[in-house]
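Methods, example record. To illustrate the input and output format used throughout this study, we show the complete record for Clp domain protein. The sequence lines were provided to the predictor; the line carrying structure tokens was produced by it.
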Amino acid sequence: MFERFTKGARAVVTGAVTHAERAEADSVTEEHLLLSLLDQKGSRASFAVAALGLTDRRDSMESALAEARRRGGLTGADAEALAGIGIDITEILARVEGVHGEGALAAARGNRRRRSRRRPFTGGAKSILEKSLRIALGRRDRFIGEEHLLLALTAGPGVVADVLAEHGATYAMVERALYGDDGESREAS
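The corresponding predicted structure is encoded as:
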């Protein structure tokens, strides 16, 4: 599938690997794809990111992503759903961190030893890459570009999509920033 990626989309994917390496993460996640995408300049996606004000709010997004990691990867919707049945994630987090130290849930999620130097992509990151292909095909685009990766990051449930939505980047808003109001809105599969 990588042969269908534009040069810019390939840069996003390789940049995600670099972000994972810098963070000493065991694998490449959706978060690394987003951070790499935010690094890119001069593309349709970088224009949309700037138009939506995400460039100016990168620190806020990184803080929100860090907080989600601290919660063990639970989304805001997950925490709300659990609160609805009487489970207080804040209290659980405080107890776990009181016993095991700050960031214990984040550490527990990613502490596998790797034998190879290559960082694998998580299932969620692979899903984003596959979804970007479906979005490109749905738009009748021949190649997968950065804009398709950005749309894919907003198209499904998960921490990254939640953080983007909290910062004004829903699928519909990103699509509008990328393509305008051409009347050809196509939802992601």
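Annotations derived from this record:
Residues 110-115 have pLDDT under 50 and may be disordered.
The radius of gyration is 17 Å.
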